[in-house]
Fold these 2 entries.
Entry 1:
Amino acid sequence: MQKRVWQHRSNLVEGFTKRYGLHKLVYYEQHESMGTAIIREKQLKKWGRTWKVRLIEEMNPEWGDLYDFLF
């Protein structure tokens, strides 16, 4: 997971984070396999912004950068 976050922070991955210059990690989940992580990611993408904000604020009410907690 740390490698993937680093890739996004370094703009090495095409997509949303690179396009909009977002490099602050405010929410993450750990999964036992890549398959379950992909299923969860697809679920999250279908849900609206209000629900996602609530999910983030339950874990990280101050919206602090969680990157350093990964190491």
Entry 2:
Amino acid sequence: MKLDLELAKKYSRPGPRYTSYPTAPHFSEDIGPAHYATELNDAGTPVTDEFSLYFHLPFCRSLCYFCACNMIITSRREHITDYLNILKQEIDLLSRQINKDRKVSQLHWGGGTPTYLTADEIRDLMSHIRSRFSFTADAEISIEIHPGEMSPERVVAIAESGFNRVSCGVQDFNPKVQAAINRIQPYEVTAEVLELLKSNGIEHFNLDLIYGLPYQTVESFSETLEQVLTLHPSRLAVYNYAYVPWLKKHQNLIDEELLPTPEVKLAMHARIIDYLTSVGGMAFIGMDHFARPEDELALALNNRALHRNFQGYSTKAGLDMYSLGITSISQTYNYYVQNTKLISNYRDMVEGGQLPVERGIRLSEDDHLRRQIIQDIMCQFELDTNKLSANFGIDFRAEFEHEIARLGTFVDDGLLVDEGDKILITENGRLFIRNIAMAFDAYLPRDSRPTTAKQPRYSKTV
């Protein structure tokens, strides 16, 4: 698979990542705790026997200048203790709303830096979760780690708590790049932590990289890719850096003049895909995700069981995802809801017996249909027009005549093949799936809120 640089220039524009549809900018404060509670208790709402849980642990010891996460920098342990107490109360509130026969098949701790918690805090929180929810025997239980915040005691606590997959941020192993983004994490430290995790029975690792950071070049990032492959990750996510200081003020600490040019970033993107697939032997999952051919993510792609949610690509298709902690976003059949962003509001709502929802959106019939279409594009790399017509009681080609017309440019560029009953995304087309999905996004054409080329709402699609 090769990235055509001319096509990349043509299609590189701001666009959603489609971790949801509709996307988060379209959430409204008209949706609140009562809507979420009604959805959880509505016997008429389709539910699955299994579900996912996400826990947002926002605290970090120090500021990474590139970060776009919802995080809080603190050195005061009492702030973390207070937050964990509120989080456990939210767990109690949510668990009362969920049928006890349903089980957790996927759990993730994100941040922030979840491993900023002490070993005892890790054990205590997971013990509380397990006391309120039942788990499937093969549940995927994952945690994001920062090697700089790992200790032998934390490693043992993670293993004893039942975590079986670890996601580790690397970004770049080049010391000059690390200094520029205030994330000092030598290769040796990362390798030592991963070996310690393996010795405690944790074999599955996701590593996260970022290209487009200060001082990066195609050659320097190639060296990082070589080093990363020696760590034998199960999965890799290689993200295109979104420099958005108008949204994340601390990114102003990065000198924009030091960032690679768009042309260099495109060349880096091409190198990443070529190197990881040809030299690294990894399967290209989609967008920025790669996996070993034997990994569950690659198998899910081959078995047409791939899914996309707020954690990116997932092996658990069709599950409700209940998310806890500030800023976290839950997905049910009819709703997306997001928790409040302020800890003070979070405390008041939870202690008042309310699920701490601040905003969200209820999906219309059209949203349900377009969500399925965009999921099929992003995860299956095809549209089965007959199946969509049957499942939704429509004539797909008549209903989406204008959207199909928009696909003409992708057909002309060899990114799509329209066979009538199926619209197939070619191998090269998979590099531009965000652009293809945007053709079916009803919110983009009618979004009247101001945006400028200098201050886009979304990251670049390529």
